[in-house]
Write a structure and sequence with these properties.
The protein has 137 residues and is mainly β. The chain has no helices and nine strands.
């Protein structure tokens, strides 16, 4: 691995007498071919983020693994599945999205979202979204 394969950045935020400083953000995904195309219809994105935070109140590291698979049945019917794991929150999240494009810029989405924490609690949501544009002539 070359040094150019890694990207680093830093940021700081101030909120109510607390300064949060992100000393290092390591983004490996976009440097390691994050989009792997298996066919014209199927591709996968892989990502990994390491947040190493050190502040006077303490320090922590968060490892976030994010992967997404996209499949196009046609130009009008698309699906995606996203899986995320956050080591700091011990959170595992899965999201499935179905997108039907019935007219240019007009969509119907169905999204199923499920998250599970280390404490055994889970969160589930089923959402539908409909967008329709009106043409005024």
């Amino acid at each position: 691995m070359k040094a150019a394969d890694w990207s680093w950045r830093g940021r700081a935020a101030y909120d109510n007498d607390f300064i949060a400083v992100e000393l290092a953000h390591l983004d490996v995904g976009k440097n390691f071919n994050p989009e792997i195309k298996f066919s014209k219809a199927l591709f996968v994105n892989l990502g990994y983020t390491l947040d190493d935070v050190q502040v006077p109140q303490g320090s922590f590291k968060a490892h976030v693994v994010n992967s997404r698979a996209n499949y196009s049945f046609s130009n009008n019917l698309l699906t995606s599945v996203t899986v995320t794991y956050n080591s700091l929150a011990h959170l595992f999240n899965t999201r499935f999205r179905l997108n039907y494009i019935f007219r240019k810029n007009d969509n119907f989405f169905i999204v199923y979202d499920e998250g599970r924490g280390a404490d055994g609690h889970s969160r589930r949501a089923l959402t539908a979204k409909f967008t329709y544009s009106f043409d005024f002539k």
